Amino acid sequence: ARITLRQLLDHAAEHSYGVPAFNINNMEQGLAIMEAAQAVDAPVIMQASRGARSYAGDIMLSRMIDALVEMYPSIPICMHQDHGNNEATCLSAIQHGFTSVMMDGSLKEDAKTPADYDHNVAITRRVVDAAHWVGASVEGELGVLGSLESGAGEQEDGHGAEGQLSHDQLLTDPDQAEDFVAATRVDALAIAMGTSHGAYKFSRQPDGDILAMNIIEEIHRRLPNVHLVMHGSSSVPQALQDLFNASGGQMPQTWGVPVEEIVRGIKHGVRKVNIDTDCRLAMTAQFRKVGQGNLSEFDPRKFLKPAMDAMRDLCRERFEQFGTAGHA
Ligand code: G3H
Ligand code: 13P
Ligand code: NA
Ligand code: ZN
């Protein structure tokens, strides 16, 4: 059945677990997430970016969600708009059956330029007003998330946002968070806590303490009723990088957010954990492996099935690690 983000994260808070929010843009990713959720009895957050919506098409995407809801009647599914850039994106998502939207007013409508605080408050408040009228939830964002804002996410030298923004700029101010939530009434809040989008987060192995636990804890303490969201939460597993590169790939060595750090974040109040890069890498490493291993293969299913299985295994692992398993 469909569930809103508010309903799901209220339950997660009550029972102290986190929920991975996996990005989808096609059928195989949707099936992979649902197979994993069914195997471990976990509730699901699936999210689509603006790019995903234009890739699959709104009608295709929304009918696909209908199909997944029907195929897995015992699994609660929250369908969420990832990084909405304006009111129209958020409201049209709700019209297509999304139960939750992110209004990312930390950036201007171009989804690149940092926006000023007043713009963020005003546009987020407008979306909250409209969404709450029809029972949908809203995630806002406050702060500068490394690579998305700096445009450094997937840059060629393989280095993320570190070094380009100061430590302070990469952290959300708890006073401002309190003000923002009071002014907008968002259900969930994405905060800058030391992560960035994409594969190239850290150019060296992180030595623990990469997340600002004090900031997470402080914001959680002041705002116990707003659910904290951690973007840029891919771990970029070494085994997937190795498989990708052993099969003709040329990804520069990189490090993501260690799963143990995410688990610590969940202990301090993080409830929604956004993961896209790991799912992409799990799938495309299999494309490479199959392609390199059988040069005459041309049936797409021979590529897509192992890719789907690899993504399913990754999703299942995260459901277990974040404590989502058993809570459907
Ligand atoms: O935060 C961005 C997500 O990883 C989605 O990326 O815009 O390429 O679909 P996308
Ligand atoms: P990753 O790039 O770390 O998977 O983060 C995805 C994300 O935050 C989507 O909003
Ligand atoms: Na931001
Ligand atoms: Zn994000």
From TrEMBL:
<comment type="similarity">
    <text>Belongs to the class II fructose-bisphosphate aldolase family.</text>
</comment>
<protein>
    <recommendedName>
        <fullName>Fructose-1,6-bisphosphate aldolase</fullName>
        <ecNumber>4.1.2.13</ecNumber>
    </recommendedName>
</protein>
<dbReference type="Pfam" id="PF01116">
    <property type="entry name" value="F_bP_aldolase"/>
</dbReference>
<keyword id="KW-0456">Lyase</keyword>
<comment type="pathway">
    <text>Carbohydrate biosynthesis; Calvin cycle.</text>
</comment>
<comment type="pathway">
    <text>Carbohydrate degradation; glycolysis; D-glyceraldehyde 3-phosphate and glycerone phosphate from D-glucose: step 4/4.</text>
</comment>
<dbReference type="InterPro" id="IPR050246">
    <property type="entry name" value="Class_II_FBP_aldolase"/>
</dbReference>
<comment type="function">
    <text>Catalyzes the aldol condensation of dihydroxyacetone phosphate (DHAP or glycerone-phosphate) with glyceraldehyde 3-phosphate (G3P) to form fructose 1,6-bisphosphate (FBP) in gluconeogenesis and the reverse reaction in glycolysis.</text>
</comment>
<keyword id="KW-0324">Glycolysis</keyword>
<dbReference type="InterPro" id="IPR006412">
    <property type="entry name" value="Fruct_bisP_Calv"/>
</dbReference>
<dbReference type="GO" id="GO:0004332">
    <property type="term" value="F:fructose-bisphosphate aldolase activity"/>
</dbReference>
<keyword id="KW-0479">Metal-binding</keyword>
<dbReference type="InterPro" id="IPR000771">
    <property type="entry name" value="FBA_II"/>
</dbReference>
<dbReference type="InterPro" id="IPR013785">
    <property type="entry name" value="Aldolase_TIM"/>
</dbReference>
<keyword id="KW-0862">Zinc</keyword>
<keyword id="KW-0113">Calvin cycle</keyword>
